[in-house]
Amino acid sequence: MSAKVVINDVGPRDGLQNQTTSLPPEERVELINALLKAGVDHVEVGSFVSPKAVPAMVGTDIVLNSLSSKPGEFSVLVPNMKGYELALAAGAKCVAMVLYGADGMAQANVNMSRADAERAMEQILQRAAIDGVRVLATIAVSWECPFDGPVTKETVADITRRFVGLGADQVVLADSIGAANPQQVRELTAMLVNEHGAQRLACHFHDTRAMGLANVFAALESGIRSFDASIGGMGGCPFAPGASGNVATEDVVMMLEQMGYDTGIDLPELMNASRLADRLTNNAPGGRAKSWLEGHLRKKRKARNQVHE
Length: 309
Ligand code: COA
Ligand code: ZN
What we know:
Blueprint: E1 6-9, H1 11-15, H2 25-37, E2 42-47, H3 60-66, E3 73-78, H4 81-89, E4 94-100, H5 103-110, H6 114-131, E5 134-140, E6 144-145, E7 149-150, H7 153-165, E8 170-175, H8 182-196, E9 201-205, H9 212-222, E10 226-229, H10 249-258, H11 267-281, H12 290-308
Parallel strand pairs: 1-2, 1-10, 2-3, 3-4, 4-5, 5-8, 8-9, 9-10
Antiparallel strand pairs: 6-7
Helix pairs in contact: 2-3, 2-11, 7-8, 8-9, 10-11
The structure holds coenzyme A and zinc ion (ZN).
Coenzyme A binds at residues 17, 47-50, 53-54, 77, 79-80, 82-83, 86, 98, 109-111, 237, 239.
């Protein structure tokens, strides 16, 4: 198994969509630039959704435009064909479309049944193939829905099979409300890696019940090498009651690097991005290892300075 792990920072979308105050596009770009400086080269930079549903994502076209000359994979979330067309017009080369493990979440999020959302996403996939746009298919509530309860492995396996078959570049298993435990994560990821290989799969965890990192580890053990995470632990879906922030990027990078995996991310620079997220939003708590990480990096800086004295 490869020792390289890809981290996709979804903070600029999953994190900022849920703040009480909206950041202007320039500040969203400032945060994304701080992530790029730290070596995070996959970022979900915003969404093309109804401005009434999520006002904080207005201006995602400006954000995308500001990044057009930068290297990296910048994805944008789209809930329907209108969102896809707006994304394409703004120059998006990668879209994250959303599927659902349960009807309740589909209704709350996009006012559609699960089947209607799947039909809309199928049309987007057909268009994206013609337009040469990469497609990430996120399955929201892959383990549990806040409205309908537990989601079976078979349901998620069926959706994954169908959308891999239709040409989705990657299927992202999302624990949108942070309800899964590592045992459940191990079971589902092992089953899907066995069927599709790890390359086509990624995981997205929220840390509501403090099992975010343990879930990353469980998926890692199944062979998954691609994870969503959010700078400063920001996040949560406004339409999924009880969801708290995503697993923090700095925690995931710290754990992976300590285990010998290569994320290509510089932790001191990542901590700068985390502090910036907090300064901009006043609401990015940082990871669970925040105080250890800050002390550790301070000590390393001090030791380096003494060598140079
Ligand atoms: N981007 C921007 N505007 C959009 C849009 C999109 N992707 N899709 C629809 N709209 C606009 C319509 O043009 C219409 O505008 P109007 O009121 O000025 O005429 C309005 O939104 C309502 O459209 P309608 O098709 O009736 O949708 P709806 O009210 O049933 O809402 C969604 C459906 C999908 C647009 C809305 O629920 C949504 O944007 N959800 C996204 C939620 C989200 O981002 N969740 C977190 C991420 S998983
Ligand atoms: Zn999420």
